[in-house]
Amino acid sequence: DSVEEISDGDLSAITPVLVEPCKMVLVVRAGPKTTNGKIAAHHATIACYRALERRNAKLLRHWERTGQAKIALKGTSENQLLELEAIAKRLNLCARLVRDPGLTEVAEDTATVLGIGPAPVALVNEVTGKLRLL
């Protein structure tokens, strides 16, 4: 899978308080048929992890210490994923939209998953709080 390169906000701006829970969400587009295994191993997770490893390792370590929560949510369309990505980046959240190369289950260049976070739960919920669980 390839990850779109879109300008981030200030990924170093987020600092959780001592015991504040953090999470990462994967917004999975409903249209393309994607198996649970493909979702679970999705590159959006790794893309977000790598970006924060470089730009906010303290936040990443906090997420690791607080349980590494990852939540899969339902997305409705590519436009929705793009809109959520823009909102997340305006809030200085790490957001990575992944497009599939079309080698297995879906057509080439199909936006399949948007990874957001990890970040404090309340901040991530500002972007994805109205979405349903996958």
Task: Kindly list the characteristics that best describe this protein.
134 residues, alpha+beta, 5-stranded mixed beta sheet, 5 helices, 5 strands, 36% helix, globular
General description of the model:
- This protein is an alpha+beta fold and 134 residues long.
- It is 36% helix and 25% strand.
- The protein is built from five helices and five strands; from the N terminus they run ββαααβαββα.
- The protein has helices at 36-40, 43-55, 57-65, 78-90, 121-128; strands at residues 2-3, 22-29, 69-75, 95-100, 110-120.
- A five-stranded mixed beta sheet has the order 1-4-5-2-3, with helices on both faces.
- α2 (43-55) packs across α3.
- It is globular, with a radius of gyration of 14 Å.
- This is Peptidyl-tRNA hydrolase II.
- Keywords: Hydrolase.
Write a brief caption for the model:
This is Peptidyl-tRNA hydrolase II. The protein has a 5-stranded mixed sheet with strand order 1-4-5-2-3, with helices on both faces.
Give the arrangement of secondary structure elements.
Layout: E1 2-3, E2 22-29, H1 36-40, H2 43-55, H3 57-65, E3 69-75, H4 78-90, E4 95-100, E5 110-120, H5 121-128
Parallel strand pairs: 2-3
Antiparallel strand pairs: 1-4, 2-5, 4-5
